[in-house]
Amino acid sequence: MTPRKPTLHDVAAAAGVSIAAVSFALRDKPGVSPETKERVLAVARELGYTVNLPARSLRTARYGAIGLYLPPGTTRLPYYTEFAFGAVDAADRLGLSVILLPHRDPADASPPTASVDGYVVVDATTEDAGIRGILDTGRPVVSGEHVVGADERVSGSVVYDHISATTRLLDHFAAAGARRIAAVLPPDGAAWSEEVARGYADWIARHDGVAITRRIPFVPRPDDVTAAVDDVLANEDVDALVVFPSGSAAPALASAARAGRRVGDDLLLAAYVDEPSHALLTPTVTSFDLEPRDVGAACVALLVEAGDADGPADRVRITQPRLVVRGSSARER
Amino acid sequence: MTPRKPTLHDVAAAAGVSIAAVSFALRDKPGVSPETKERVLAVARELGYTVNLPARSLRTARYGAIGLYLPPGTTRLPYYTEFAFGAVDAADRLGLSVILLPHRDPADASPPTASVDGYVVVDATTEDAGIRGILDTGRPVVSGEHVVGADERVSGSVVYDHISATTRLLDHFAAAGARRIAAVLPPDGAAWSEEVARGYADWIARHDGVAITRRIPFVPRPDDVTAAVDDVLANEDVDALVVFPSGSAAPALASAARAGRRVGDDLLLAAYVDEPSHALLTPTVTSFDLEPRDVGAACVALLVEAGDADGPADRVRITQPRLVVRGSSARER
DNA sequence: CGCGGCAGTACCGGATGTTAT
DNA sequence: AATAACATCCGGTACTGCCGC
For chain A, how many structural domains are there in total? Predict the structure, then answer.
């Protein structure tokens, strides 16, 4: 019923050559005459031959697979899904598979079991047992953003220039007339927290302004945002506000409305990380498109180069977030 | 420098037995005495032995991997990410890996190349070249939701009871006093579209009501939602509204506000698919938690059973969405 | 004698049927 | 009748060497 999948032997027999010749022909290696190669390829196509990857892996000790580790607990953020598919598509173009790795509970110190040639991780910290396990495999690892606590242990990273981005955003506010700009920041400890905090502080210092900041969790509940924004609006004389953590835009808008502020007019607002909802809120919310697909693809590219001889030219690739200006920061007339 | 990874041979030599004995001992197969087994296991642990998966795959023709195919173009919906990790965690507990499959462009008719024992697909239609390729492999396929156009070709499915869910939602509205309930539906063609449309129509008929419906795209732009909801509110005398497609809640709330309706009071509103934003909007929005993690895990379980001898007891598993009542449908006082 | 083109073959690491003890 | 050693095989890869010109 099921005619066994054709193997190199079948192709070799059908083409009247040795399996070695077939193997070479299929992989476009020198040592076979153009005519034989042509014939072998024709026969292979006709028989529907495809390589048996386990067999190849066994021989070459390469797996044709990349392990992808997304941060635990944040699976609702669309950023990571986009990132994942950027990586998957890039890997596919290189003939590689992407294995989605499970999150390990902190007690579990066992090494990751999947057979992969290297890893791509995002927003990683060594607090995470899964990340430690990955670093301990000794295989190449490329990270999206820096790895907090072990940046020298990865083969490469694709990072955002958050300082420049923050600067551009504040310049944009200033150009729209903002004079007193507050920032609702994530807590220290995450890779980008410190960069954006520094970007903000430096910009304020350069412009002889007053730093007005509040801290809320990395993934805040609406109440956290509301409390911080209410506090800023009640106690500080601000005409612009940046909320950095994800999911902050909607509660911030609500707070502004309650405080009687007209967002986009007497209060300029921006979120940092773009989310689909930003285009749906009223007013629409200015934020940075981090182009996660491109970054995911870049991580895969860097990983593959790291596996190649003598590594890539650059260990760190820097990406500029793209500012998407929307109604919340576009002062009316 | 790198002490080659230990193999069966190494363990066998260190334990003073044959590789066959080691192989049997490690897989807990009969034919080795308890003492030898104990010793072998100890040596294996000490040497840090792990099986070489390609070698095992080569011999057994099993890959220890599952291919996961998420619908293209909807990668921003958190549902699928949750689903994916439900599948990954379930697979991990069974010692399996999950390979995230790339989306194929329609022209590409080549079979999927990844080596997997079976596939999990979600919200699939045979319009999708990727799905056709997967079905053509002849390997077991389990689908989350029915596969439009090829439901008999899959080994199993985990589906929601959308009719019962829709009924429960409308009952909830009625209990809160709603008399004229409108529905903004997705277009026909998707698996659940027809079920929810039927659930709505049947319920209305049973209650001698008037069906008031509009159709918008499966993944609507805010404008689509706004237009439909504005139209309903302007031209129909409704006191409750269900918006089914994802991402509809926020624009629907905005429309209601513009029409001068107080949502949760003189207009009851519910979305169908729960999203994180529903807990953040004002008012918060009632919707169904589809528990995607559980469904992803169930798909993997069903796939593994399908691979076993004589298949699973049931080909189709039915799940009840969990209604999460929030402010938008909880009439004040 | 050198060289291109190809056949022959020794692995890669584990699973399993067969043969000793 | 139980255990364990031995031999094969899974499908490729890559090295060695033979052949003819």
Answer: 3
